[in-house]
Amino acid sequence: MRIGVQLAVAGDQVKQDVIEIAEHKLGEMTDEEIESAIEMKIRAWVDRMIQVEWEVIEE
Length: 59
Prior knowledge:
By secondary structure, the protein is α+β, with helices and mostly antiparallel strands. The protein is built from two helices and two strands; from the N terminus they run ββαα. It has a two-stranded antiparallel ribbon with strand order 1-2. A hairpin with a 2-residue loop joins strand 1 (2-9) and strand 2 (12-20). The longest helix has 19 residues, at 31-49. It starts with a strand and ends in a 10-residue tail after the last helix. The mean pLDDT is 93.
């Protein structure tokens, strides 16, 4: 299964990619389980793509 994902920041698309899940891993999963697996893959992708840094510049 191939899933297209897009990352936008402030409405501007900054990254797009295709995530693949091997069909044999989906096996006999229910639709809800497949949706959950897709959400986990997307979350892992987002975690790899986004990094937020901050610092106090004035107190």
